[in-house]
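Q&A log
Question type: sequence-to-structure
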Amino acid sequence: MSVALIIGGSEQVKNEHGRALALCGNLRVTHFLVNDQIALWDATEAEGVTLHPPKLPGWLNTRTAAGLPPLRAVWSIHAAPGVDCVTSEWRGSSGLFAVKVAMECGFRRIVLCGVPMEPGAGHVVRHRSWPEARTFHRGWQSHRALIAPVARSCSGWTQRLLGDVTAEWLRSRD
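Response status: OK
Response body:
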């Protein structure tokens, strides 16, 4: 079984990722790097995901300059420089878009790391709150029936919405 780890932008993402990896054990893991994490996260099995394609060339240049492994593909909502795959969005933040992409890639176990969707969670780059977080809750709620069977979250509002990740859930069958 394979697991998709969505790598979002909250300041707790590294702790949550460590916990998720420990729960995954020997399961195969693919990382879906959201927005700023495209430039920052060191992972060999990784895809980029963004609702902000104009920022993509900068993130990809920073990734290359840092000597990080190339991404397998980059997903967005329309064709642009650096975008390999295009799909529609669900109006619920780049984190929800990453869940949609992972589902389209066939993943049935998706773990959100650093995607609490709470204003006070802080940002890994900007180190400030995100007051707009709550404005995206409606998108998550409207797709809950589709994603709840396959996705869990390590923290925050998304954890309350979808449930916490456990080793038992990761290894269970749909």
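Response note: Strands lie at 2-7, 28-34, 46-49, 74-76, 85-86, 110-113, 151-153.
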